[in-house]
Design a protein that fits this description.
Helix content is 33%, strand content 29%. With 177 residues, the protein is α+β, with helices and mostly antiparallel strands.
């Protein structure tokens, strides 16, 4: 045993040997594919929720924009009512009156649209209600017996865009009362 030669010590591959190797092993390839798949899944999940959030915000913005536009126009025109006796018809979903220019303006809600003189003013209106108040701020019940007692008109409008609904409301007192 003393005279026998010992086998060369176990030698690991150096960095230079590994670099000169061509290709990858099957284990390395599977690991790269698995890690790439997990990373792609993570990024796809984040993108999905970001796109969903964007669509929700956009839908709410569009619904709110439609409602605000309609109520701003209505409040501007209601402020221009000639006098208390120029309101010809007032119900929960419609109003007809004369403005200071002598024009008769008619608002009517027929789901899913709100109309001004027969022309669509707002689309996707899921709810619309007008409430009428007298001098004391007391709500007048429908049908209103004496239209000249109306002093304030409260408008409440709900518009929907996509899956999002936005409720908008405003109270208007005509200037000439």
């Amino acid at each position: 045993m003393l005279g026998e030669k010992m086998p060369p010590p176990f030698r690991t591959k150096s960095v230079e040997d590994r670099i000169s190797q061509k290709g990858m092993t099957l284990v390395e390839l599977v690991m790269v594919i698995a890690l790439t798949g997990m990373l792609a899944g993570f990024v796809a999940n984040i993108l999905y929720y970001e796109i969903n959030a964007y669509e929700i915000v956009t839908s709410r913005g569009q619904a709110g924009k439609n409602g605000r536009f309609a109520l701003q126009l209505m409040s501007r025109e209601i402020r221009q009512v000639v006098s208390a006796d120029s309101i010809f018809q007032a119900s929960a979903d419609s109003l007809r009156f004369a403005d200071i220019n002598g024009l008769t303006i008619n608002y009517k809600h027929t789901s899913p649209k709100l109309f001004r003189n027969g022309d669509p003013l707002a689309d996707n209106v899921t709810a619309f209600q007008m409430t009428y108040l007298n001098d004391n701020g007391t709500q007048l019940s429908h049908p209103i017996a004496d239209l000249t007692t109306i002093r304030t008109i409260s408008l409440e409008l709900t518009t929907t865009f996509g899956s999002q609904s936005v409720q908008t409301q405003i109270s208007v007192t005509p200037r000439n009362f």
